[in-house]
Amino acid sequence: MTPNSFDTPLVLSGPLRRPRQMLAEQEYGGHGSIHDDAIAEKLGFRAGPIEGPTHFSQLAPLLAQVWGRGWFEHGCLSAHYQNMVVEGEEVRAFVELPCAGATRTRAWAEKADGTPVLEASASIGPQDTPSLLDERLAKLRTPEKLVILADLQVGLRGAADERVRMDPDQNMGALYPFSLTQKLAVITEPSPWYHDASASPWGRAIVPMEMISVLAEYTGHQARFPVKGPVVGLFADQEIRLIDGPLCVGEEYVLRREIVALSESKRTESYWTRTRIFDATGERQVAEMLLNHAVLKESYAGYADAAR
Questions:
Q1: Quick one: DSSP state of residue 125?
Q2: What does pTM read for this prediction?
């Protein structure tokens, strides 16, 4: 019997983990966020959810098993968030084993009872095939009428280049009121590569994929996108693509943002931003993040009247 005797898809799975909620004190626009229990409950959610990209860490060891060191240099995880997770709930990650030579596969995470948390495509290297979010973007319909996002338009770019870095003990600000060191103390899948330069194949400690999201959003306010408020939002879709990675701890990067899509659902208005991450010279692109910022209509005072 040879390895090709069956067409049965095989799956790698990780252990059940209980990810930690670190955004209870998050602030933006002068107010708290959906990660605050009281605000979440007011908007009809059970409690303040764990930030979506936290679950990316559970996929990292599985994708490293599939593609090795190359995953941290040229990997792309493209995810649609399906259901919120609150602290105390258990989550397991899964990756379908790709065929030999394949550069894209399916990944997902679910709660202990099988409730889906996220669905994703995982891929590596030059992107010859669309990612999950490429496919979702292609299906979006132009919103008929936006209220909170009325002043936004596709193609709008951030006000200026943003310079960012992530040092081990640097507090990442009001949006992320913790440091990398504090995150690594509770991360679901620890690795010496995240804190020990001598253990890393690149001779530098590297930024975990879930913390690339933090790095990319750290200076987001500098883009000055004219979103009406106050309003509460959440991440609905997110893709992190490493082009010439990994990203390293303590290294300076230049960020450039652009709105690439606007959309609407029954409960939300959304603006999709692509944040390109360059080295300190601003010439070599090393990564990028595609993010669907979904703002809750009911969190905006007078939304119904404004919509009419």
A1: S
A2: 0.93
